[in-house]
Design brief:
The chain is built from eight helices and six strands. The chain is an alpha/beta fold. The protein folds into two domains: about 35 residues; about 220 residues, Collagenase (Catalytic Domain) (3-Layer(aba) Sandwich), CATH 3.40.390. Helix 4 packs parallel to helix 7.
Amino acid sequence: MKRQTLQTLVVVVLVAFTNLAGCLGDSLDEIIPERKGIPGGLTLACLTSTSYTSMIVEVDYEPGYKPLTSSTEMLIERLTSVCDKPDGISVEFQEVNFGQQGDWTAEDVRTKAWEEKSGSPREDSTLRWQLIFPAGTYTDASVLGVAVDASTIALFGDSIEQAEGPFGRPSAEDVENSVVVHEVGHLLGLVNLVYESPVDHEDDEHPGHSNNDQSVMYWAVESTDLANFIFGSLPNEFDSDDLNDLAGLADGSIPIRDQLWS
């Protein structure tokens, strides 16, 4: 096909789609929605500055469920330590009413969160991840937090409060701090969500989680089982295996898959 003919065909196709969009009252973006990906689908977008030099963590919360200052500050500290964002990482807070009735499913989280997103996860040179703090609990009430796609996680404040241990050990604040970092760890691809670690540190019975109870990615951290940490400190940091995985992903020595970034 000649170059001019091909260009004409492209124009005709674009015009046809534009007219279709007008008839339906939808934009092209709504007809061809943005891919949401899987947890870990924007790992490289965070770890490197090749395409995204800044990052926004959007925190959408229902009235009475705003996260603790300590948890968002800790989150930014952990992200800053592993993600190359020369123009900085910031937090934007937004109070919303999700209007969800009953328990939350993963699909509920995806749907409600994307309705409230203030911008695209990938916009110009800025990467945007979203944390929602809704009222209510997950369908499995023992679940404290969940990562549902490449840019979205939810933390369930009611369940986090109930997860506080006897005599306040661990405290609800300690629980929230750890669960926030844990779920964002899943957005970073930990453990083995979008790669295969050269080190055997994934829990065989809990895929996607660490077998080290000193890692924030330990399987029990996102569930009420973490009350077992009453006689020790609740982990809120990535361990050496987690950090080595992230470093290997960033420098290309560990192959990665299912990435949305370009």
